[in-house]
Amino acid sequence: MSIRKTLVVAGHGMVGHRFVQAAIERGLTERYDIVIAGEESRAAYDRVALTSFFEVGADALSFLPEGVYEDPRVKLLVDTEVTSVDRDAQRVTFSNGETQAYDVLVLATGAAPFVPPVPGKDLENVFVYRTIDDLEAIREASKTAKAGVVIGGGLLGLEAANALHQLEVETHVVELAPRLMAVQIDDAGGATLKRHIEKLGLKVHTGVMTELIDGDDDGKVSALKFKDNDEPLEVEIVVFSAGIRPRDILARESGLDVAERGGILVDPQMRTSDSNIFAIGECAAPEGRMYGLVAPGYQMAEVAVDALLEGPGEFTGADMSTKLKLLGVDVASFGDAFATTEGSLELVFADAVGGVYKKLVVNEDATQLLGGILVGDASAYGILRPMVSSGMALPENPEELILPASRGTAQIGMPDEAVVCSCNNITKGTICGIIDEQGCVDLPCAKACTKAGTVCGSCVPIVKNLLTERMEAAGKTVNKAICEHFSYSRQELFDLVQVHQYKRFDDIIEAHGTGRGCDICKPAIASILASQFNGHVLDKQTTASLQDTNDAYLANLQKNGTYSVVPRIPGGEITPEGLIVIGEVARDFGLYTKITGGQRIDMFGARMEQLPAIWSRLVDAGFESGHAYGKSLRTVKSCVGKTWCRFGVQDSTQLAIDLELRYRGLRSPHKLKGAVSGCARECAEARGKDFGVIATDKGWNLYVAGNGGMVPAHAQLLAGDLDTETLYRYLDRFLMYYIRTADRLQRTSTWLAALDGGMDRLKAIVIDDELGLGEELEAEMSRHVDTYFDEWKATLEDPEKLARFVSFINAPETPDPNISFDTERGQIVPVNHDEPVVLGSTIPVGAPQ
Ligand SMILES: Cc1cc2nc3c(=O)[nH]c(=O)nc-3n(C[C@H](O)[C@H](O)[C@H](O)COP(=O)(O)OP(=O)(O)OC[C@H]3O[C@@H](n4cnc5c(N)ncnc54)[C@H](O)[C@@H]3O)c2cc1C
Ligand code: SF4
Ligand code: SF4
């Protein structure tokens, strides 16, 4: 029996947070409890957007405004520094004196600003620029200050100058090098940037060296003195931004190998010289090199999670391109910006009046772009940088790429491999795939689904273009590769599985894919296998390891780590005895109950190890799984119909029950809902469902492809006045054709919208059987109906499947102590983890009695 392990993360900054997110998303918490200790007083936030703190406040920057992760197996301790690591005992000590044992330790301690040993550096009102606390302190000091200076004219120095400027303090920038942003841009670019900044009223001093900081009698900053210059700057605030140093002290003190110039040495899988300890982000130094940008840190976080999952991922270096808006000025630098490649040529466009400087570095025969610098107008960055990373051929007149309002840069097609979002390392292909699959209709939706554009935001314009392109092309030239592991659409995979009769994911990926699969293709293939073979979703040999969180426990995971229990109530009809059983179960297990919009009763708050005992009672009383957790048929809602209603013309309740029983358990690309109304008054809201039936004097009208949700769609009439038998036939064909041909997570409405020929085409296929598929589709549905079984009943009969329903594998009887409840309106509701623990039910947990 495997035992749960403990993983400790030291540092809750951008990369530490990304690591934990990836760990949750990719199932690492199935094996590890994660404890994160962050030294700052708040959970991780967007440090890259730090300067906007004055405008938006801390909550808007926070990655975790509630301070807790959705997964209860992850515990975050803020205001808690890891002060030492005892590698022999595998234990860390926190600043509050407590200790924590670990099986795996991940160091994500970031970097600290470097403060050179300038006399006066310890005076009051000398700051660094790294955390929200730093900004709060600077804001406080600015209330009484007239002038301030930033020492360092690099990327971060200009950010800090921006902050001072926002606080309405006269702002100076002091830089030792002869130009600003010396690492990223050349002399001409630096000069253009300087002009821009000075126009805003800031004072830039390049090529000068700070000698000392003077203080007044109160020990506060009063002036800055330069070497070889008699004229001191009278300032009351000094902000150091002279570079950063990796925070590798824990590694040094515990004897781990560190790089010569600082940073914890790691192998390509982010393991330090101690195989139980990983280092990621700015504290790490793969091959001795530290990366001071967030994108490489995110890559490292993903690689470390991969390594812990025994995956093949490796960190092989990162693109250090940058695009920023500094004090309102666009600045970008990418690839070989300084033309260090032998034979490389430079193409320059400079408009001193307009304050625009653009430089392209191309190879000797001008066929490939090697790098570039953009100041004042970086709109072409999104197109140019991917051209460097993909090595795509330059157009015949490359200068057109940088000419003002360039004639057609937007028209240059990027290859799918081109990395569009460098912060998250997402290619154009991946973005398009996700946009298509999710049916995103606007930018926020596309950003949320693809993650592109959610860090520095520089790729947002391209994501928007891609979205527009995909929407315009919907149904025509869409790239439907389901994910990076398969170059096939869901429909093509469906056909492959059918033709080859595959039963295992491993066989499919071996024959038709690459890698090990991901959380996109695994559940999609699980769904395809379930649609075609109707096996048990928890079958070890076939689909158990492929399921997402809900399917994996045959229940919906709720916000405090508990699960919901939803028995099927076909057509919403239930006997008083049934109601009593549900009431008794809910009472005995202390569950919250609610009647859903789909005419069922939700029971919330069940701990994972309680699920079998709860279901055992329900199954004994004749209930079965309502599949509330699956991408499958949920409910067929009904009104009371002609049996009770004065207006009813048909027995809508009977039909709804029959349809729900016919299609129960049917796995599909998206969840499915149906409804039947007994007359045109439409009390069951059938036209807001994937299939809706409305009774007429002569029979049934069948509507398809409607839905509620974020983008509601009205179902459309497929056929009218049908007899019951024909209704079944058309519905069987419609549903099976959808299941066969839709994309992953594509609703019936978006599927129909994308179907070439739309409703007319669907009628031709379903009613006129133009493709000659009718019988085949009906036979597939019959096979589904004949092979249906209740997943929960089958689970209760199988000890191997039951074994997964434990909070702690090594202590199956122990409930998760992090789960606690409060009471509201007489029922339980979730509370935060730091509130008192109430364990609820006294019913014994474990396998059914
Ligand atoms: C103003 C500013 C602007 C930036 N702009 C950009 C940009 O435009 N693009 C870009 O790519 N990058 C930018 N960066 C850099 C980017 O923020 C970093 O690359 C990124 O935050 C690194 O993430 P990290 O998790 O490694 O370190 P951090 O985010 O610094 O997180 C490390 C965390 O660990 C904590 N910690 C340290 N030691 C311990 C310990 N012993 N115990 C517990 N906790 C500890 C620290 O307090 C910190 O909260 C910017 C940075 C700043 C400051
Ligand atoms: S609406 Fe759907 S597609 Fe859009 S962000 Fe939400 S989940 Fe993604
Ligand atoms: S839809 Fe018609 S039959 Fe059904 S409850 Fe409403 S009025 Fe009555």
Compose a concise summary of this entry.
The protein is an alpha/beta fold and 849 residues long. The chain has seven domains: 5-110 and 247-309, FAD/NAD(P)-binding domain; 114-245, FAD/NAD(P)-binding domain (3-Layer(bba) Sandwich); 322-405, FAD/NAD-linked reductase, C-terminal dimerisation domain (Enolase-like, domain 1); 421-474, Arc Repressor Mutant, subunit A, CATH 1.10.10.1100; 490-548, no CATH class; 549-630 and 789-848, Alpha-Beta Plaits, CATH 3.30.70; 633-771, Sulfite Reductase Hemoprotein, domain 1.
Low-confidence stretches are 405-412, 833-849
**Reading side by side through the largest sheet, how are the strands ordered?**
3-2-1-7-19
Biggest sheet features: 5 strands, parallel
The rough form would be described as: globular
CATH class wording of the largest domain: Alpha Beta
Q: Percent of residues in beta strands?
A: 15-25%
| SSE-based structural type | alpha/beta
Helical percentage:
25-40%
- Count of distinct structural domains: 7
The average pLDDT score comes to 85
**C-alpha end-to-end distance:** 22 Å
Hetero groups:
flavin-adenine dinucleotide, iron/sulfur cluster
Helical segment count: 26
CATH overall fold name of the largest domain: FAD/NAD(P)-binding domain
**Estimated radius of gyration:** 31 Å
How many beta-strand segments?
38
CATH architecture of the largest domain: 3-Layer(bba) Sandwich
Q: State the CATH superfamily name of the largest domain.
A: FAD/NAD(P)-binding domain
